[in-house]
Specification:
It is built from twelve helices and eight strands. The chain has 300 residues and is α/β, with parallel strands linked by helices. The protein has a single domain (9-291), classed as TIM Barrel (Alpha-Beta Barrel), CATH 3.20.20.70. It has an eight-stranded parallel beta barrel, surrounded by five helices.
C-alpha cells in the first residue's frame, strides 16, 4: 500500500540565483523558510519551477542538502530527480536518497517518447532501486507525452510509488486514476488553475507555483473544501485565479521570478535559454500583485 502520504500543499520551489547566475544557496534556504512559514507542508526542489534542465547534478545535490538542512524538521523535502534516461535517474535518485531527502519527484521521460510499456518499465526500475517514496510527474505540455490512466494505475500498485503530480488537464483521466489506483495513492494537481476541480473529484492537493505568493490562502482553500465549506473554497479559488493566470502569462518560472523580485524577495534571473518577461507581460504581473494580498514573509 502506498505510504507515506505527504501534505496537501507542496510548493515547487524556485531556485534563487545571484547576479552572476550562480545558485544562491543562502537565499534558497531563506526562501524555503518563508514558504514553510506561509503554509507549505513540503517543498519540491529542482522541478520545472526550479529550472531543473539548466542545473548541474552537483548543484541539485547541494540544493537538496541545503533545503533539507534548513527545513527538514518542519516540511517534507522532495527532490526532483527524473530525466529522459532511466539509468541516470536511478543513480541520481540513489544519490538524493543518501542525502536524506524525504521523497523524489520523477518526471515522465521527455524527448525519447517511450511507449506506455516503456514508461511502466522505466518507473518500475526506478522504484525498485530506491526506498524513497516516489511521486510520478505527468506534464504532457512539457514532455510531449501523456502517461495514461492505465499506466499510472498499474504503477500505484508498487509500494513506494505514493502518488502523482498530474498536469495533463484531463479531468476524465485524473478521475479514473483517483477511482482505480491503490488505496492511499495521492493525486496532486500539477496546475494551480485545476486545484479546486481536482479536489472536487477526489484529489489530494496541489504541487503549486502560486503558493510562493499566496500559500496561506491556497492552504485555507484546501482546508475549507475538505471541511465541506465548498462555497468559501470556491470564493478563494475565484479570487486567486487572475494571479494564477498572470504567473503563467509566459513560460514558467519566468513570471514567478519576476513577481518575487518585484515584491522584494530577490531570486535573480532565470538561466538561459529562459529570459525575463516582455514589458507588457511584466505590467500584467505587477498589476495583479498590487491587487492581491501576498502571504510570503519577506523578512524571514
Amino acid at each position: 500500500m502506498p505510504t507515506p502520504r505527504f501534505g496537501r500543499l507542496l510548493t515547487a520551489m524556485a531556485t534563487p540565483m545571484d547576479s552572476s547566475g550562480a545558485i544562491d544557496y543562502a537565499q534558497a534556504k531563506r526562501l524555503a523558510r518563508a514558504l514553510v512559514a506561509s503554509g507549505s507542508e513540503g517543498l519540491v526542489i529542482s522541478g520545472t519551477t526550479g529550472e531543473a534542465p539548466t542545473l548541474t547534478q552537483e548543484e541539485k545535490l547541494r540544493l537538496f542538502a541545503a533545503v533539507k538542512d534548513e527545513v527538514g524538521g518542519q516540511a517534507a523535502v522532495i527532490a526532483g530527480t527524473g530525466n529522459y534516461s532511466t539509468a541516470e535517474t536511478v543513480e541520481f535518485t540513489r544519490e538524493a536518497e543518501r542525502l536524506g531527502v524525504d521523497g523524489a519527484l520523477v518526471i515522465t521521460p521527455y524527448y525519447n517518447k517511450p511507449s506506455q510499456a516503456g514508461l511502466l518499465a522505466h518507473f518500475t526500475r526506478i522504484a525498485e532501486s530506491t526506498a524513497l517514496p516516489l511521486i510520478l510527474y505527468n506534464v504532457p505540455s512539457r514532455t510531449a507525452l501523456n502517461m495514461t490512466a492505465d499506466t499510472q494505475i498499474a504503477l500505484s500498485r508498487l509500494p513506494n510509488i505514493v502518488g502523482t503530480k498530474d498536469a495533463s488537464g484531463m479531468l476524465d483521466q485524473i478521475a479514473r486514476i483517483i477511482e482505480e489506483s491503490e488505496h492511499g495513492f495521492s493525486v496532486w494537481s500539477g496546475d494551480d488553475e485545476a486545484t479546486l476541480p481536482i479536489l472536487a473529484i477526489g484529489g489530494w492537493g496541489v504541487i503549486s507555483v502560486a503558493s510562493h505568493l499566496v500559500g496561506l490562502q491556497i492552504r485555507t482553500m484546501i482546508e475549507r473544501f475538505v471541511a465541506g465549506d465548498t462555497a468559501e473554497a470556491a470564493r478563494i479559488h475565484r479570487r486567486l485565479l487572475p494571479l494564477v493566470k498572470a504567473l503563467f502569462i509566459t513560460t514558467s518560472p519566468v513570471p514567478l521570478k519576476h513577481a518575487l523580485n518585484h515584491m522584494g524577495f530577490a531570486v535573480g534571473a532565470t538561466r538561459l535559454p529562459l529570459v525575463g518577461p516582455e514589458p507588457a507581460e511584466a505590467q500584467v504581473i505587477e498589476r495583479e500583485l498590487a491587487r492581491q494580498t501576498i502571504d510570503l514573509a519577506l523578512s524571514v
